[in-house]
Amino acid sequence: MANPFSVPHSKNFCGGNFQDWLEVNIIDKCNGRCTWCVEKYGIHPKHHADWKTICNVAIATEKRNVILLGGEPTLHPDFSRIANYLAKHKRNVWATTNGSLLTRRWVRENMGGVCGINISIHNYDFAQNYVVTGIQLNEHNIIRAISELRAMKIKIRFNCNCIKGQIDSVEKIYKYIYMAIELGADSIRFSELKHDNKNFVDLAKLLEHKYGLNSDPYRFGCNQNVTIEGMPINFRQMCGMQTNLRPCPKNPKIIKKQVLYYDGKIYDGWQQKRGPRMTKEELIKLLFEVQDETKTIADAVEVILNSVPNPKSKESCKECSRIHYYGSSCQY
Description:
The protein is α/β, with parallel strands linked by helices. 28% of the residues lie in helices and 16% in strands. The chain has a 10-stranded mixed beta sheet. Strand 2, helix 2 (79-88) and strand 3 form a beta-alpha-beta unit. Helix 1 runs parallel beside helix 2 and helix 3 (104-110) runs parallel beside helix 5 (139-151). The protein is globular and about 45 Å long. The two termini are 33 Å apart. Mean pLDDT is 86; it is low at 271-276 and 309-332.
């Protein structure tokens, strides 16, 4: 009998790669305002477990690599305790941060249990990064923090979402690489945007399909590792389950991935196309934002479209037939 499922590339997240990694959203607070935030339609538990409970649940999964996320994880008052506790239990601890708290002193006092850090900086010009994220990075603090991280032998990766009007040309990609080299990063990840057609930058077209970049990442791979100007680069593309600018697989075969949230509960997360339907309160808030001109009508339409399940999609949950967002699980 023919396989009825569309099968992802084996090196993709949903194809079974990175299964020894556990994502841990330790906090829901964030001091940024990134429009593409993947937690916008994610799980928002009301309960907040204590730091030790979260750690023990993470350890019980037996995953060797644990990445601390948020919100902004460095805002957690027990960040250092979490990192050190996990490290003492022989876990490789990573953290992804917007860099807002990074100073030499903060790194020295809080990063002892961390083996690697991903610093999200979305433009080589820190003033433009502020426009995108609302985070005002101090270059002097970042340089000193990176110096301390290197002294502590903590690996440093810069994460850059490629955004139209920001990092959207070959020239700008090279400028970003040179900035990362100058500041002392060990590697870079360039990513496409999820659920944001307006600001989407197609890396395959931009780089003329070099480096393994392709127009159907679900089938041909969404992660490509290369070296440019001596800098290790990871390109992360979005398939049709994260953007309708790419072919969407029919009846996709997806391997679930565990995600631990700050309520101390584990959810089965996987890559899916649409978020949950907007609540009445969310819609009212959106309409007020349009009225106050903090959002354009086009932006509001994009938000609403991304909140409506695709009626043609076959990517529904086996338990309840609803469409779930990446990092979420069946709660019905």
